[in-house]
Design goal:
single chain; alpha/beta
Length: 298
């Protein structure tokens, strides 16, 4: 772990602003994110773009920066001809790039993103869950990624966009003993996981786990996020992490976003009152929205 305050210690003092949708910022910078590795391909092809995207969020006031490792996995790198040793170095690079971008006034913490198994399938499965894979197989998939990221000493592992409780169980098992605290964040529909389990049951998996420093939701509608905050706090007694999408809807047939953004930074105060301590945005939430959010969090 790097020198300085642990993230859990900082959370005890008050809420912190997370960053927003990294891939959206990269797209705004003109990056090509096609392919199964998504934004992680830039770790090899154009790390400077990642550094610039992280800096955009840091300048906006984000105190926690999330790495470009959400869709990074050894098998995907191998299919691009990248060997295991080099791939492990790319996982470490994701942490180093975010760390370098966060230097400046005030403390900045780095969350190493660990996306769900469905993200590696690159077919939208993270929004359905129920992969038909046993928990032990999911543990085997996630553990090498987690070990590679943990070796780079991030401040926290973001076990994020988790669609069902089976995968949450696998991720927590895979992270056990890695030496880095984690947050657990589900993607939800109403008051259920994407796979249909009650959120109270999903949050309960983290309640007695000391490695989990925050629990909550991401990559969901802002209205769903708001309802989940108080429930997560009540079930677990832990700080809550919440970072919803803009509220726009992805049209899979037309390959475009539809509708308008309903992401309202002013709601952060309600979420803080209900127990949120890590607050940011996910898809379609950019530096402008994060700046407005950070201003409200102080």
């Amino acid at each position: 772990m790097r020198p300085g305050r642990a993230l859990a210690e900082a959370l005890a003092e008050g809420p912190l602003a997370l960053d927003g949708g990294l891939a959206d910022q990269l797209a705004a910078q003109g990056c090509d994110l096609s392919g199964e590795l998504w934004s992680a391909r830039l770790l090899a092809d154009d790390p400077g773009q990642l550094r610039a995207a992280h800096r955009a969020f840091a300048r906006a006031g984000a105190r926690v920066l999330t790495t470009a490792s959400y869709q990074a996995f050894f098998e995907g790198f191998a299919r691009r001809g990248i060997g295991r040793r080099t791939a492990a170095a790319l996982f470490a690079r994701s942490v180093d790039l975010a760390r370098a971008a966060g230097t400046g006034p005030g403390e900045t913490w780095i969350a190493a993103s660990v996306g769900p198994y469905g993200a590696a399938l690159a077919d939208g499965s993270e929004y359905r869950g129920r992969y038909g894979r046993p928990v032990r197989e999911l543990v085997r998939f996630h553990r090498p990624r987690i070990e590679a990221l943990a070796a780079a000493a991030p401040d926290v592992l973001a076990l994020e966009t988790v669609p069902d409780t089976d995968e949450a169980e696998a991720l927590l098992a895979a992270a056990e003993g890695c030496g880095v605290p984690v947050w657990l964040s589900y993607t939800v529909d109403g008051e259920r996981t994407r796979a249909g389990q009650p959120l109270a049951d999903a949050f309960a998996l983290a309640a007695g786990n000391d490695q989990v420093i925050a629990v909550g939701v991401n990559c969901c509608a802002p209205s769903d996020a708001g309802r989940a905050v108080a429930l997560a706090a009540a079930v677990t007694g832990k700080p809550v992490v919440v970072y919803p999408n803009s509220g726009e809807r992805w049209d899979t047939a037309a390959h475009r976003w539809r509708g308008g953004s309903v992401f309202d930074p002013a709601r952060a105060r309600e979420w803080v009152a209900d127990g949120a301590r890590l607050i940011g945005g996910c898809c379609r939430v950019g530096p402008r929205e994060i700046a407005a959010l950070a201003a409200r969090l102080g």
